[in-house]
Design a protein that fits this description.
The chain is α/β, with parallel strands linked by helices. Helix content is 25%, strand content 31%. A hairpin with a 5-residue loop joins β13 and β14. Pfam families: Lactamase_B.
Length: 211
């Protein structure tokens, strides 16, 4: 059985999700905010879990500040290729947001493409690109588990900001309608900030994008 744990981490309470399967003794991480390795490593050790990979939903700084520590621990990182320019500009992002903390530029092992598919903990995972907040923001949809990790495309009762480079509300609205609202209504959505929600709930009540 898949266990999903969320950890809101600095500097802006960005959710990191640890997916684990006790029967296989393996785990996967979704997103890598600052301090993520220090947060999850005691759990991995206590439960004898092997962290197989980390998939980044997009390249905004708050989702990747902990990624270099994962590099140090030989954890493969994946990111959509449409966010390569944003990823390469991490230092500029931090300057833009007034952050001067030292950091090490992470290294990506696998660049995902539109239509890519993965296997996470023995389960098929469909990658859907949802631009509008970031060019390479992806949805990681696990049909067998009826859940999807949506980055900052959509939140419970809200949507991702569109005033950053590469952002467009029109594009985001189209992405949500075509790539998220087309998922089964019972699908649980795990966003990059805030609580989980469902496709049905957002289609019925999200004030920014009507289903």
């Amino acid at each position: 059985m898949l266990q999903i744990r969320s950890f809101p981490l600095p500097p802006v309470q960005t959710n990191a999700f640890l997916l684990s399967d006790a029967s296989s003794g393996k785990a996967v991480l979704i997103d890598a905010p600052q301090g993520v390795w220090e947060t999850i490593s005691p759990i991995l050790q206590e439960e004898s879990l092997i962290l197989e990979a980390c998939v980044l939903t997009h390249a905004h700084f708050d989702h990747v500040l902990g990624a270099s520590t994962l590099n140090d621990n030989m954890i493969p990182l994946s990111l959509h290729q449409a966010d390569k320019l944003m990823f390469d500009a991490l230092s500029q992002q931090m300057t833009f947001f007034g952050m001067d903390s030292p950091f090490v530029q992470p290294t990506i092992d696998t660049w995902l493409e539109d239509g890519s598919s993965l296997e996470l903990l023995g389960r098929p995972a469909e990658i859907r690109r949802v631009p509008g907040h970031a060019e390479g923001n992806i949805v990681i949809y696990l049909p067998d588990e009826q859940c999807a990790f949506v980055g900052d495309a959509i939140f419970a009762g809200s949507v991702g900001r569109t005033d950053l480079p590469g952002g467009s509300f029109e594009v985001l609205e189209k992405s949500i309608k075509e790539q998220i609202y087309t998922l089964p209504d019972e699908t649980t959505l795990y966003p990059g900030h805030g609580p989980e929600t469902t496709v049905a709930r957002e289609k019925a009540s999200n004030p920014y994008v009507q289903g």
